[in-house]
Amino acid sequence: MASVYIPVQNSEEEVRVALDQLPRDASDILDILKAEQAPLDLWLIIAREYFKQGKIDQYRQILEEGSSPEIDEYYADVRYERIAILNALGAYYSYLGKIETKQREKEEHFILATQYYNKASRIDMHEPSTWVGKGQLLLAKGEVEQASAAFKIVLDGDHDNVPALLGQACVEFNRGRFSDSLELYKRVLQVYPNCPAAVRLGIGLCRYKLGQFEKAQQAFERVLQLDPENVESLIALAIMDLRTNEATGIRTGMVKMQRAFEIYPYCAMALNYLANHFFFTGQHFLVEQLTETALAVTNHGPTKSHSYYNLARSYHSKGDYDKAGVYYMASVKEVNKPHEFVFPYYGLGQVQIKLGDFKSALSNFEKVLEVYPDNCETLKALGHIYVQLGQTDKGQDFIRKATKIDPRDAQAFLELGELLILSDTGAALDAFKTAHTLFKKGGQEVPIELLNNIGVLQFERGEFELARQTFKEALGDGVWLSFINEENKSSIDAATSTLQFKDMQLFRDLESNGHHVEVPWDKVTVLFNLARLLEQLYDSGTASIFYRLILFKYPDYIDAYLRLAAIAKARNNILLSIELVNDALKVNNKCPNALSMLGELELKNDDWVKAKETLRTASDATDGKDSYATLSLGNWNYFAAVRNEKRNPKLEATHLEKAKELCTRVLIQHSSNLYAANGAAVVLAEKGHFDVSKDIFTQVQEAASGSVFVQMPDVWINLAHVYFAQGNFTLAVKMYQNCLRKFYHNTDSQILLYLARTHYEAEQWQDCIKTLLRAIHLAPSNYTLRFDAGVAMQKFSASTLQKAKRTADEVRATVAELQNAVRVFSQLSAASNLHIHGFDEKKIDTHVGYCNHLLSAAKVHLEAAEHEEQQVRQRQELARQVALAEEARRKAEEQRKFQMERRKQEDELKRVQQQEEHFRRVKAAPSSSIARRRQALSESDDDEPLLQRQSSPVRQNSADMQLSDGEIRDGDKTNGDDGNDEEKQY
């Protein structure tokens, strides 16, 4: 083993010191060094050996003693060794300051390092090693520019100074100038080819940062060739293998990472990567062990940040959000800027959302967005947070941005649809449909929640058939298909006919027959919504089957009880409805919806005291925050004010004011509550404020018309009542008729009674009678309708008889109506339960007597009307005969004129034809004359020489010129007799 020899002062002897047997107490060796006044280079050798053996305190003790004032004074002429000792101390404290996490201790270490370097500079300010040490100190402090200046001072004097080149390479690497850093590392290799393997590690890192992965891998592999146990190169190669995201690469990378861990079990980076691997394999206990070890062996901020992040993720995945939040926060604190390591900010934001700390989560996700401005997950998280903070529009903007960045992100469209449901159902439906399409195209299973939302929106828009298909798609296969397809139609009919809404025997029979009667929990809501849709489509029988199916599998599903109660109520089975609501209350006796419905049913059953108590219980169950319960209590007060014919004005005013107060309270809590607004308007109308109430009713009507789920026939009726009270009978009639058609399919006898009353007040007697007869057809046991019909017939007859002019038909109709009225009143008078319906027998007899009196008078009027009608018919017959005679005369005259005109036309036609015939004969005559003349000329050719001798040439030419166009006359001279004959004939 190596040894050093300390010369004995004033002797040729030496003290041998074995370096592997250095004393534990450095004071022993220091005594020898001082006593023998050993050279300072021996001090350095022994101190360095202590450092190699990990005996840091002894190392520091020797160096501090070697730099004491006594040593400086004694070795004043020994400059280099003194500087080397001081620089060693400066480097030691620079390292301590670099790894220290506490700011105060860090600064103290840096101050000591600075003092030692400054002391070394005072010995020789040009010593390169001192400047290199100062540069390393400045790098540790993060003062990159000052460090670069220190290294350049050395390099200006010696371009090939290896420590300065390495320091400047680190500076350029920290600046992000990886190409310049790479060139400096290459230069080091050129200057010092046998440099340590760590230099090539720097080359590999530069290549990696420059994207030259193959060359980086070669550099790291070269490091391993030179130093097979170089942990840093193993980790670098392992990271490169892991980044391939391939199974083979991941296996190879983990093998290398494990080897690095075996070589040095306290390498924090290897521990972090192993923890990351075990996190994805679900071995959380290993994650926690490895990260805790990494935190114990390192003080490097970024490395600790990764360790805390791994530990936080482990707790996060296990649902321990409190611990996860603590470790995410610790990870964030180890990072100076989000750009250095942004993942803990994202995880911390997620945990804060779970814990309800939305403002802190918002801050963290915004930091993530600064680093990754187009990250869809972050945008969706921010959108969710803004919605929770009440800034819905801003939340929608973030989700929309996410959908634009990645139009194939089905989840983003799903979340966008959920945000738009309350503000824009059309846009929400489009977003849901897009998400549905993307899930389908991606081969993914479409979430049931998405299909349910699509179906609900289609339901709300009135697209009932589309909604039905969507709900069926969401439900898939199941026992419900047999009912939807009417395979069990007979069972449905039997169940609905008996109204056995509580009977579950149907499903037991299906199970006994081998059918699989199951309703998965995630399909219960869809099945309920489908049943609700069937109610809207008037298939309440199938709907009741589905509600009962839900209760068969989930007996505590309160809403199913309430819907069955609503169906029973619609069929006027109040007792069954109350029984079903009580079943719901057995599940939860403080359910406000069930209590409110029970109170309403009790009110309908005329159980006022019990209804009031029930409604108060419903309101108290929610501390007055349940709008429905509060409004039901308001309705009770309103009906209490108006229900008695003999009203107590003081009590009436009290109840009306209480009703108004309750409606107003709901409006303050929920300004868009249509039912509260309707109730307030009813109270105002009852107080005579018709204009104000009419405006409110109109606004409520317009708002309710935009939703299928909001069915408010009452507001139409109330608006018609206001028109009636104001005397605007035409609008009142129109409003009643529209309400009947829109909500009741013209089958509600009460609204028909309102309509008849309006016709009555408008003196539209026949319309009134027709309306009442329709109502009687719908409610034949309602004696009030019959009485009103008799009164209307009586009034119609009296008004007709009072006319100054009336036809026999009108009088006959009057007689018929009077006979009907007498028959109606007689039937009412003969009824055994007359008094139960509130009728006075004497009053009915009075009506009968009056009708008989009118009937007698009508007969007299009928005779007079018939006599007058006969006279009118005779006059009309005479007038008709006169008109017929006049018509016959007119037609005869027209016939005569027609014949004369026709003869005239025939004569004219004959004359024209004769003229045309004469013209044709005249035109044919000249042609025959010319032919005969030409023949005569040809026969006189033998006389031509004689004529030529007798005529001079000049004369002949002259004759030709003059008669060139007079051939007929020349011929006439030659053959005079024939020419004259032709002229006469012509």
Q: Rounded to an integer, what's the Rg over CA atoms?
A: 58 Å
Main sheet record: 2 strands, antiparallel
CATH topology of the domain at 447-587: Serine Threonine Protein Phosphatase 5, Tetratricopeptide repeat
| Fourth-tier CATH superfamily name of the domain at 447-587 | Tetratricopeptide repeat domain
Estimate the mean pLDDT confidence.
84
- The first-level CATH class name of the domain at 447-587: Mainly Alpha
Estimate the global geometry from the Cα principal axes.
elongated
Helix coverage percent: over 70%
Per DSSP, the total helix count is 50
Low-confidence stretches at least 5 residues in length (pLDDT < 50)?
489-499, 940-986
Number of strands: 2
- The second-level CATH architecture of the domain at 447-587 is Alpha Horseshoe
> How much of the residues is beta strand, in percent?
under 5%
Structural class: mainly alpha
GO molecular function, one term: RNA polymerase II complex binding
Biased composition (Basic and acidic residues): 895-919, 966-986
Biased composition (Polar residues): 948-961
Pfam family, one: TPR_8
Provide the descriptors you would attach to this structure in a database record:
986 residues; mainly alpha; Serine Threonine Protein Phosphatase 5, Tetratricopeptide repeat; two-stranded antiparallel ribbon; 50 helices; elongated; TPR_rpt; TPR-like_helical_dom_sf
Give an overview of the whole structure.
With 986 residues, this protein is mainly α. Among the domains are: 196-264, Tetratricopeptide repeat domain (Serine Threonine Protein Phosphatase 5, Tetratricopeptide repeat, Alpha Horseshoe), CATH 1.25.40; 277-373, Tetratricopeptide repeat domain (Serine Threonine Protein Phosphatase 5, Tetratricopeptide repeat, Alpha Horseshoe); 447-587, Serine Threonine Protein Phosphatase 5, Tetratricopeptide repeat, CATH 1.25.40.10; 751-866. It has 50 helices and two strands. Strands 1-2 form a two-stranded antiparallel sheet. Helix 16 (284-297) packs antiparallel against helix 17. Keywords: Repeat, TPR repeat.
